[in-house]
Amino acid sequence: MSFSDLQQFCMRLRKDRALEARISVAMQQGTAAVVAAGKRAGYSFSEEELSVTLAAHDALQKQMASIACTTVVAGSPVPLAQVALND
């Protein structure tokens, strides 16, 4: 079990469309299926490691979305929806 293997696996997913398609199907079946598919591809990581990584990824995506939807006006963050776009 290794976060390093999981990291390498994720990097390969970005490049290997066939593997990405297989993992997409496996994700619908659950983390055990993803771990098994990873093992068949030569990687060793646990369901727990995968779950932790997926949760961290989701949290980062939410944080990035929040940052992207906020700007600073007069030193205070303001949602972009409230910022007048016309001068």
UniProtKB/TrEMBL annotation:
This is Nif11 family protein. Residues 1-50 form the Nif11 domain. InterPro entries: Nif11. The lineage of its organism: Bacteria, Pseudomonadati, Pseudomonadota, Alphaproteobacteria, Hyphomicrobiales.
